[in-house]
Amino acid sequence: MGKFVTALAGLCLTFALAACQKAGSDAVNAEDMSMGNPAAKVTIIEYASVSCPHCARFDIDVFPAFKAKYIDTGQVRYIAREALTGDPAIAAAGFLTARCAGKDKYFQVVDAIYHAQQEMFTGGEPHAVLLNIARSAGLNDAQFDKCIKDEAALNALNARWEHYVKDDNINSTPTFVINGKVYNKGEMSLPELDAAVAEARASGKTPT
After folding, report:
1. What are the extents of the domains in the chain?
2. Tens digit of each residue's pLDDT (9 = 90 or more) over 76-86
3. Coil, strand, or helix at residue 35?
4. What DSSP character marks residue 68?
5. Could you confirm whether domain 2-9+26-194 is CATH 3.40.30.10?
6. pLDDT (tens digit, 9 = 90+) per residue, 136-174?
7. How confident is the model over 96-136, as pLDDT tens digits?
8. DSSP letters along 118-175, please?
9. Vertex 50, ends 178 and 58: CA angle to 5°?
């Protein structure tokens, strides 16, 4: 972990997680990573961390079926927003690596990190695990090292997380926002997502 501590020394997570007046925003921005039909009538935003066990369980156990049912069929647009919960150093290094791999490989890298999460937390060396994932995504060792030490990218990631906490009132992961309605009780099952998507359709509210 020493390499992460050095590389991410500027990471600051001291902002309060106290009450904010504004609910989770469903306005799409340029920094969002997304998949699915941009014109879909339902947009689901997931605030998640690659070092959050609940997020990993959702990604592995629920997301594949949800993606096949709704995203791949054009019914739902999915947006991922990066949270620095769990171990913030691992989360930051993981997200930086995914972005360095490129938009076409971003979700592939994130999924690989979720699948390797238990290995990292139960005796594996996080740096080595992430390096192997980076290599599989086409990054060489020098590119990976430069990526996780990119101060500008780290500051941008940290600023996005601070915005999610202060302005979108995100204080736990995973948190889902479905056409503006916030679901912040943790991981959702496929039946719960089915019900939430149906409710979003029935409400007539369109994503912004």
Report:
1. 2-9+26-194
2. 999 999 999 99
3. strand
4. I
5. yes
6. 999 999 999 999 999 999 999 999 999 999 999 998 999
7. 999 999 999 999 999 999 999 999 998 779 999 999 999 99
8. HHHHTT--HHHHHHHHHHHTT--HHHHHHHHT-HHHHHHHHHHHHHHHHTS---SSSE
9. 50
